[in-house]
Q: What sequence folds into this?
């Protein structure tokens, strides 16, 4: 079947596809591509034309009247905020040459830098090069006809291995198996997607029985540091409560949003991208996939963190505090998450983006990738050159992070992060952030 035989439809609201069909296509793809999560973003107004996140999903069917076989969550962007793959310099370069970088199209989960599938499929359609080309042509024509503007570029953010392989039309090695040569290869750049790499930190569950079991995998010094930090909070009267499902009361949610807004306001001068309506709808529709941790000091609530989880993983997303307490952020957002993941036997815990401070708390570096195609040939080539020069720095950062892991030498061979030969227990980071999970 050629690409022209498929029915390709641009969807400007997720409600144009039935919840049942979307959920069937998104099964086992994680909480963030679920109908409930994306619908809450749209219905609350967090993702709209006014917010610069105009829904622009793609639905593909094998026949003109058959059921949708493949959906791609996507958005038209008029800015680059909330993506966590930073291309502001690219936009500035366009502007300096009198060109418009916006609107651009991205396949991503808004405000959610978590690797996952961007191709939600029943297995009947593969994204071949010809079909991908037709998608791009359809998007370009749609933006021109509906908005009267030219689409500058296409971006696939935090794509998993399966999505990456189809976007780049070649098998993609597992992140930790990538060689420097493979990471740097951006040759034959025209008419193909460029791959940009970044590093995040992720905790893996190696069959731990409890939190002490996890601590026993660390070096003696780091184990003592963590125990001391947690003991100090306990002596100050700090306790933590976990709320999931119907345990998430209106009061629990209201306190979380209060903390979320206060911390965003202090850090960024606004109360956050996500509003009360978004969080309220999530509790209504997917509370069984939510965990709220509340920190209480001497019976007074002082901080809160929101996580999402499914049968395989835990994902830390948002946090806020009304009082500065030394060590509270790490305890609430990392250690409580680890305890929960061990209790639920979850295989991984992704605590959020940024932060070398995660390394010394047992979070291993992982590669994540995005793919980019700029329609202006000269700028596409310039970005390819930038990525070729940037990638060695990414690999160096990954290796440094890997060598700073705090696991003891007996446990090192167990790690999913390969080739760790000399964890350095003396590594210390002087820029520990306290504002993001």
A:
């Amino acid at each position: 079947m050629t690409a022209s035989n498929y029915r390709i439809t641009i969807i400007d609201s997720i409600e144009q596809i039935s919840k049942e069909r979307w959920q069937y296509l998104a099964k086992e793809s994680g909480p963030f591509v679920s109908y409930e999560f994306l619908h809450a973003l749209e219905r609350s107004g967090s993702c709209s034309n006014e917010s610069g996140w105009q829904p622009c999903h793609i639905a593909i069917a094998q026949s003109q009247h058959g059921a949708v076989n493949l959906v791609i969550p996507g958005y038209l962007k008029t800015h680059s905020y909330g993506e966590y793959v930073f291309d502001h310099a690219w936009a500035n370069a366009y502007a300096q040459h009198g060109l418009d970088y916006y609107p651009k199209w991205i396949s991503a989960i808004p405000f959610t830098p978590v690797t996952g599938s961007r191709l939600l499929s029943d297995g009947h359609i593969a994204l071949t090069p010809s079909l991908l080309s037709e998608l791009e042509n359809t998007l370009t024509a749609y933006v021109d006809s509906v908005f009267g503007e030219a689409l500058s570029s296409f971006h696939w953010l935090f794509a998993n291995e399966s999505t990456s392989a189809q976007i780049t039309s070649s098998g993609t090695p597992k992140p930790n198996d990538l060689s420097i040569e493979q990471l740097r290869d951006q040759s034959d750049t025209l008419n193909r997607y460029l791959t940009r790499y970044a590093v995040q930190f992720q905790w893996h569950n190696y069959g731990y029985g409890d939190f002490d079991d996890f601590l026993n995998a660390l070096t003696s010094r780091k184990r003592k540091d963590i125990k001391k930090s947690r003991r100090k909070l306990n002596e100050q009267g700090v306790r933590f409560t976990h709320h999931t499902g119907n345990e998430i009361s209106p009061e629990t949610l209201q306190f979380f949003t209060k903390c979320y807004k206060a911390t965003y306001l202090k850090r960024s001068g606004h109360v956050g991208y996500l509003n009360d309506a978004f969080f309220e709808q999530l509790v209504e529709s997917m509370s069984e996939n939510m965990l709220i941790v509340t920190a209480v000091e001497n019976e007074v609530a002082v901080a809160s963190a929101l996580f999402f989880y499914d049968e395989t993983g835990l994902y830390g997303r948002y946090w806020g505090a009304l009082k500065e307490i030394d060590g509270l952020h790490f305890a609430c957002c990392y250690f409580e998450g680890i305890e929960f993941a061990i209790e639920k036997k979850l295989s991984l815990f992704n605590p959020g983006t940024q932060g070398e401070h995660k390394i010394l708390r047992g979070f291993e570096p992982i590669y994540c990738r995005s793919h980019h195609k700029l329609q202006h040939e000269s700028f596409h080539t310039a970005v390819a050159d930038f990525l070729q020069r940037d990638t060695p720095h990414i690999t160096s950062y990954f290796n440094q992070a890997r060598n700073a892991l705090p696991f003891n030498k007996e446990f090192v061979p167990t790690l999913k992060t390969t080739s760790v030969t000399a964890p350095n227990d003396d590594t210390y980071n002087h820029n520990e952030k306290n504002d993001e999970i």
